[in-house]
Amino acid sequence: MKNLIHGMMVVTALAGAMALNAQTPDQTPAPAPAPAAPAPAVAPAPTLTADEVVAKYVDAVGGKDAIAQVKSLSMDTTASVMGNDVSGTVIVVDGVGYKSQMDFNGTQIIGCVNAKGGWQVNPMAGAADPTPMSDAEYKEGKDEMYVAGPLFDYATKGNKIEELPGDAGTYKIKLTTKDGVDSTYIIDAKTFLINSTVHKGQMQGQEVDITTSYSDYRKTDAGFLIPYAMNLDLGGQFQLSIAIKKVELNKTIDPAIFEMPKPAAPATPATKPGE
Description:
This protein is mainly beta. Helices cover 9% and strands 41% of the residues. It has helices at 50-60, 63-69, 135-141, and strands at residues 72-81, 84-93, 97-104, 107-114, 118-122, 127-132, 160-164, 170-176, 182-188, 194-203, 206-219, 225-234, 238-249. It is globular.
């Protein structure tokens, strides 16, 4: 459930009306219209600072106390890919590791990050054995280790935020991690929940905007809200829908699952009798 995203500039158009006054049929010109009274000034809507928006987001998803109770998160998911349902799991131990696994036609696709680095398994891309992530991939994915994401307690994590012009009814917050990775969060101005996130990614060798939209927020037993439905759009070239089927909090998770396993040793050929 990666956070991705770009921003949209809000354009507000102000319209004015003009009255066209026709002259009367005779030779007497119509009197000039009286100048219109100036429109009353409209006070601008109050604007929150980036810190205030993020604080309200934290409160909206349950608040610091509820978030602090969640030490681990385990989820069963189903993704819809080109008409096929693909089952998967996501496991997060706060600040320790993140692991996502999908089973596609009997093939396991795994992505994992921990405090030291990241690794992946993707036989469809020719990587049947665990392979280390590139430095860029790790920097983009390492914040997945945090249950509440990179916005929560962002300054302690070394992240920076700024507010960008947002669309009507939303706030747009740009977050830059200490590794220089940018993401933009579109936050609803009423609920202060995240509507969508955008970030740059690669699609068939081209840089694209990856947008993830979130909906169906539900409260867990700890009072922490989680979106149960996500839609991913990769530059308009590929779409993916994910639904969360089951959530478990604070299960005991062995941190060893976030370590990259060693490749399977090649099979030793059997020796023939007499050799």
